[in-house]
Amino acid sequence: MTEQVAQAGAMAPAAGANVRVWDPVVRLFHWTVVAGCVLNLFILEDGELPHEIVGYVVAAALVVRIAWGFVGTRHARFSDFVPTPSRLKAYVAALVRGREPRVLGHNPAGAVMMLALMVLLAGVSVTGWMMTLDAFWGEDWLEGLHEALANAILVLALLHAAAALFESWRHRENLVWAMVTGRKKAMGGARP
């Protein structure tokens, strides 16, 4: 037993060292969604071909990310970060007290946000595709639902970005840059 502990300690990175957390698939998905949402919400004309192409690219990225959530690297897997209700409740209670633990992968609140955004992305993708079908051509309710889902993505994305900046400040770690490089400080290398 002591030999196993010694081996585990020898393999653990030193405090302050960087470790790979976000693999290229996770990072590519993240930035594809960011770029796609910016393009389709603010730059491209609704209903035009470029808007549709970007929508299909985001939808394809979502399909890949969902599959990757089952077969990908450790921190990409749903089994690694989807919280139980009790774990989420404990995390939120600690967050309210200003004592939330630092998490190497997704924290429980971030995991719920990610899942909510994925559901909304799926919804906006499906409704966007439906609007191209003859059966739903010109349906106002469908266009309204598509726009409502897109607006919900915008609101949650802004909340997500604010939370990432807040957590970066709280734990003295640039989470935006971590999503670019894929690397974060090893556990023990930043405060809670």
What does this structure look like?
The chain is built from eight helices and two strands. The model is unreliable at 1-10 (pLDDT under 50). It is elongated. A two-stranded antiparallel sheet has the order 1-2. It has a single domain (19-185), classed as Fumarate Reductase Cytochrome B subunit (Up-down Bundle). It is mainly alpha-helical and 192 residues long. It is found in: Cell membrane. One of its GO terms (cellular component) is plasma membrane.
Topology, element by element:
Blueprint: H1 2-11, E1 18-20, H2 24-43, H3 49-71, H4 78-81, H5 85-96, H6 108-130, H7 140-170, H8 175-181, E2 183-185
Antiparallel strand pairs: 1-2
Pfam families: Ni_hydr_CYTB (PF01292)
Subcellular location: Cell membrane
Domain Cytochrome b561 bacterial/Ni-hydrogenase: 21-182
Summarize the structure.
This protein has 192 residues and is mainly alpha-helical. The chain has eight helices and two strands, in the order H-E-H-H-H-H-H-H-H-E.
Primary descriptors:
192 residues, Fumarate Reductase Cytochrome B subunit, mainly alpha, single chain
How many structural domains can be distinguished in the coordinates? 1
Shape verdict: elongated
Distance between the termini: 30 Å
What's the β-strand tally?
2
List SSEs in N-to-C order. HEHHHHHHHE
Per DSSP, the total helix count is: 8
Helical residues, percent: 55-70%
CATH class: Mainly Alpha
Global mean pLDDT: 90
Question: Percent of residues in beta strands?
Answer: under 5%
What is the CATH architecture term?
Up-down Bundle
Widest β-sheet, arrangement of strands:
1-2
Q: CATH homologous superfamily, by name? A: Transmembrane di-heme cytochromes, Chain C
Radius of gyration (CA) equals 19 Å
Q: Uncertain segments of ≥5 residues (pLDDT<50)?
A: 1-10
Structural class: mainly alpha
Main sheet record: 2 strands, antiparallel
* CATH topology category name: Fumarate Reductase Cytochrome B subunit
GO biological process, one term: respiratory electron transport chain
InterPro entries: Cyt_b561_bac/Ni-Hgenase, Di-haem_cyt_TM, Hydrogenase_cytochrome
GO cellular component, one term: plasma membrane
Keywords: Cell membrane, Membrane, Transmembrane, Transmembrane helix
